[in-house]
Design brief:
The chain is mainly alpha-helical and 1012 residues long. The longest helix is centred in the middle third of the chain and has 18 residues, at 582-599.
Amino acid sequence: MSVGCAILGDVHKTSVSPVFVGRTDELGVLTDALARAAAGEPQCLLVGGEAGVGKSRLIDEFLTAAAAAGAVTAVGGCVEIGSDGLPFAPVSTALRGLHRQLGDELARAAAGQEGELARLLPELGETARESEDGRARLFELTARLLERLTADRTIVLAIEDLHWADRSTRELLSYLFRSLHTARLVIVATYRSDDIHRRHPLRPFLAEADRMRALGRVELSRFTRDEVRAQLTGISGTTPDRELLDRVFERSDGNAFFVEELAASITDGCRSGLSDSLRELLLVRIEALGEDAQRVVRVASEGGSAVEYALLRAVAGLGEDELIEALRQAVGASVLVPTSDGDGYRFRHSLAREAVADDLLPGERSRLHRRYAEALEDEPGLVRADELPGRLASHWYHAHEPAKALPAVLEASVHARRRCAYAEKLRLLECALELWEDAPVEVREALRPLDFADFYPACGCDEEALQHTDLLAEIVVVANLAGDRDRALAMAKKALRKPGMDPVRAAWFWLQRSRLMSALGRGDGREELSTAQELVEGLPPSQVQAEIMAQLASWDALHDVGPDVRATAGRAVELACAIGAENAELSARLTLGGYKVDTGEDVDGGLAEMADVCERVIALGAVGMIGRSHINLASALQGVGRSTRAAEVAREGIVLADRYCLDDARAWARNNLASALFALGHWDEAERVAQEAQCEARDVKPLGCATGWLAAISLARGDWELAETRLATARAHYGTHDPQPQDNLFLARSAIELAVARGRYLDARAELERALASGPPLAAHRYVWPLLTEAAAAEAEAFGLPEADAGRAGILARIRAEAEGLPQAVPLRRAYGRLLDAELARAEGCSDAGLWGLAVTAFEPLDRPFELARTRFRWAEALLTEGGPAAERAAGPLALAYAEATRLGARPLREAAGSLARRARLPLGGEGRPDVRTPVDTGPDAPPRLTPRERDVLRLVTLGRSNRQIAEELFISPKTASVHVSNILAKLGASGRGEAAATAHRLRLFSPSGAE
């Protein structure tokens, strides 16, 4: 017997424990999920753990149990190629496994959609022609296929090594996790938790998974000492002695794979001198193999996660008998194992493959990749046709032969796009860019033509070879589709540095740069847009020109430049229609409709126009417009007070954005939904939706908007600390590079409300002045009305305070002047007009019950419960102030305000209503007249129990007195005054003197003059 055979015999008997050790709880979680799936509730689970901890063994045991229970199982492993994997590789492998088992049943389930699904499962036939919505259809049809297949059976799909998954696979899995609701399906995926560093591409996927309530997580820890004993017993068949157990447990630290490696080394006689290096530990068993077996293992290490037998034979350079004997040794030593389809081999553990690959010499590695590439070129049938372009590109690239690699990676990029794998195409195009200068000129002149770059005008004719500028344009477009806007911007800038560029192409790059600068929050994009416009001025009409005009109209609308919006949008529609640029036409029509709504020019007509655009966009599958159309329509509906319909459109937008994997569009749609829900009084749901938008947003503006809504919710609830933090964060997200009225006015209103709550009345006034510094915006009335009413309420709250007397008349005059020119084209804006009249009167010391009654009447038919409750409270307050018969009518509106504030969780309003009821001796049941005999001093809204001396001190605090001035007036020491102030702050829950004064004003503890 040879040395290799002797080693084979020993290792084969002692390498892997036939006994499944531990993991009882973890296996229980998986089997419970299988039971729930069998009942029709789809299950998704992620199994994490460090390399070698036993994830694959756990999955093997689970799949065996599932098959025994009658389930159909299939496995797909992610393939490590470069820094990312082959597009959809694990899903395709799993679907092929199902196809082998189910055959005609799978074909029937895919009937009518074979062309689309062939992108994942080529066995179904020819791939359908690409379309703009191809990616969305592929995801949706995959989900429907799985639902059909699980109609009368339970299916378990296992995806291994998710840390190597390509982005397209991650996005498809994320879609399946979210969209499957009624399938008898279990999807379980494993990943190495110790590989997930801060910038690892799987990290955002895991964060999103954590937010999915229906997704389970299983984390595998290392084995305990007792479990290591059980594992060693299973390997050797006898209980290990104490010394051996201590040594193995200490060296392995409970990692199951290391336990096996150490056990194998000790069995082979290496009881001492074993290197502490992990790499050397993993190589010990491999170095014990015969020479041919070691050669095969080295060849396999560069072939990818799995290598087909025929390909291995072509590359290894051994005769078939020698190759089989070498493989028998490697398999017997548990270094290699056959793949699940029986067509090839893979390393039993990826750590071993990495160790072998790391041990190769640089020249040896490139030579192996060259031999793989040559073998694939000579015999393309050695691998699956759908994998050939990617694998050939990878091998030529790592062989360091630019003349071969450049055409190969460009061809693979086309294949990736056809599979809607944008992130993978970006990676390949980046490789092409790296190889470009090193490739010979004759090779570059024979490259494929431009593949896909939206409406970019290619340098040559359709059949001419790709130029360097064309390659940059492809990268800009695909980087944007892949969500890497930083890279897209960098490539646009790189292109624009090239001298002598055709003006239309240069205009295209400037337009992309404008959009990217705005999306990334690094500028408003206007300068870039103007440059693009100048470049095409006077040239024949083109799609680039139409897109520039449509973008100009959109920019003008967002920045509220005035009547020019209508004219620019109209010209964009005419130009786009003339040349058949439908996307540009729809964009301009959407802007025009929004302008009509926002200015009040034609609200119903504008909404109808926007709704028509939404329908047309869906019919066309125009991915670039799908997000914006529903986002803008929902926003317009919310702006005119149709919050219920706005919420419906926003939900539709979320579904569409989800279908097309548009993260920012989904975040914007969630912001629209949060806005509508907040207005409708569903604050808990609004907060949850806004938090989801925060997590999903990639660009700064949707992130700032989500945080702004969270600040507004905190304010309404009376959580000042959280509101202040969220407001500051929202402003930081928006930045200062691209100020837009809708953002500035929205946040300014919250800032004024917060300043009043904190007792900083002059800060509130300054916020208003900053917000209105650039003049009244023409198309942002929806934001101006709430801003002005909040500013008037701030002045009313500050009435009677000496610090706010100076400048009051001027600021009230400014508020009136701003309001005079605002149209009141819809009921919501008319209601705000009534509310502003009432607040201005209150700010002048005359709370007019008649004005407040009109405001209540205006808000009652609208979906604005919080505004209505606040207005009812002020009406009740005004009725009580008038006294006489009017006071008897205060109980009803006050009770309604209190009840609504309690339902909403609006603490400040609830406390103020409760305080007013106590002072007026009114029960909060809604009926009754003021009763001076029945004080009410208990309950959650009772005023803080201040001593008479503390009330004296608080009265002086509200008048702005310092501790020394309080001491002089009350004939106490400054230190005693300071103690009283500290006690008062604690009892009121105030963070400072200003907030204490604001609380006293809100609860009406003192009259405006400061006297009790």
